[in-house]
Write a structure and sequence with these properties.
- Two copies of one chain form a homodimer.
- In chain A, strand 6 and strand 7 form a beta hairpin.
- The first copy, chain A, has a six-stranded antiparallel beta barrel. In chain A, strands 1-6-7 form a three-stranded antiparallel sheet, with no helix packed on it.
- Chain A is built from no helices and ten strands.
- The radius of gyration of chain A is 18 Å and the shape is globular.
- Chain A has 168 residues and is mainly beta.
- At the A-B interface, strand 2, strand 5, strand 6, strand 7 and strand 8 of A face strand 2, strand 5, strand 6, strand 7 and strand 8 of B.
C-alpha cells in the first residue's frame, strides 16, 4: 500500500530514517461499516453517522471505569495503511501543493487519527460511539474524555509528564 | 521516573508486554515556560496562557506550508516522562479509583498528549501557539488543522487509510 501510492504534481517526500523514537501498543481495534479506504466518509458525523465500536483488549478493560460520565470522547487511532514520508500533498490536483501539517490527511509522519465522538453505549469490552471515519480494523490507541466535559480532579501528584490529572 | 512512581490506594496496573505494535518519529519538540511537571497548569489556556513554541525539525519544514490559514490547531505530543501501565488511578485520593480512559492523565498506555491551541505566529521552524500545558522539551508528534476550520479539499485519491483529505 505504501510503496505503490501514486504521486501527484508538486508533491514532495521527506528523506527520513525509519521511525524509532518511541513505541505504541494497540489497546484494541475499531469496528466501522467501512471496509475499504475509499468508502470512508471525509469527516465523521457524531449526530447522523452510523454506530461504530471501540473494542478494548482484555488487559485494559478496567481502564474504562467511569467512561460513561462523558457525552463526548476524543479517540486516537493508528492509520496503519498510510505512507508517512509525504510532506507536500496535492489533494485537489491544483497548481500548488499543501503542507502535510495544514491537512488532516492520514498521510503524515505519525499517522495518528483523532476523532471527537458521541458516546452511545458501553457494555463489557465494547464502547459504541458515533463520529468515526476510519476503516474497520483500525488499531485503537487511546480514549480520553472530551476536554469540554472534563474537570481535573486534582493536581498534587508529581511523577507524570504534567500532574496526572492534567495532560493532553 | 517511571519506576519510582508512588502508587495510591485502589490503583491498579496492567500486566502487559512492552509496546512494539508501531513506532513513532519525533518531528520536533515543544518549548514552554515549565521545566518541571509539577509547575505545569492542569489545562492549557488558548486565550490567557503564555506563548509556547513548536520547534519543527528540518526534514519536516515544508510540511508547515499553509498552516497559517487556521486560527486553531490540534497538537499531538509524546509525554515521555509518563509510566504506561496504570489502568485504575486515584487522582483525588478518594475511596475509589477511576479508569485511565475516563481521565486525561498523562499516565496511559500510549502517553500521547492532545491540546487545542491558538496560532499566534509562524517563522521558519518555529510555530508560536497558546494553549499548551506540557513541560519544555516534550517531543512533538503532529500538527493538524482544527477540524472546526477545516474543509477537506477532495476525496478522490485511494491509497490512504481513508481518503488523503479525510482522516483523523
Amino acid at each position: 500500500m505504501t510503496e505503490d501510492f501514486p504521486m501527484r504534481p508538486n508533491e514532495m517526500t521527506a528523506d527520513v530514517m525509519p521511525a524509532t523514537d518511541a513505541s505504541l501498543t494497540y489497546i484494541g481495534h475499531i469496528e466501522t461499516p467501512w471496509t475499504r479506504p475509499e468508502d470512508c466518509p471525509r469527516q465523521g458525523d457524531s449526530v447522523a453517522g452510523p454506530d461504530c465500536a471501540l473494542v478494548v483488549a482484555p488487559p485494559w478493560l478496567p481502564a474504562l471505569t467511569g467512561i460513561d460520565a462523558y457525552p463526548f470522547l476524543d479517540i486516537l487511532y493508528w492509520m496503519h495503511l498510510s505512507r508517512r514520508d509525504l510532506i507536500l500533498q496535492n489533494p485537489d490536483h491544483g497548481d500548488a501543493a499543501r503542507g502535510t501539517f495544514s491537512l488532516r490527511s492520514p498521510i503524515r509522519p505519525n499517522p495518528i487519527g483523532l476523532s471527537n465522538v458521541r458516546l452511545i453505549g458501553w457494555a463489557g469490552n465494547r464502547v459504541t460511539v458515533r463520529g468515526l471515519e476510519c476503516v474497520s480494523g483500525t488499531p485503537l490507541l487511546d480514549i480520553k474524555p472530551d476536554r469540554r466535559h472534563f474537570t481535573p480532579p486534582s493536581r498534587d501528584r508529581a511523577g507524570g509528564q504534567t500532574s496526572p490529572e492534567a495532560g493532553g
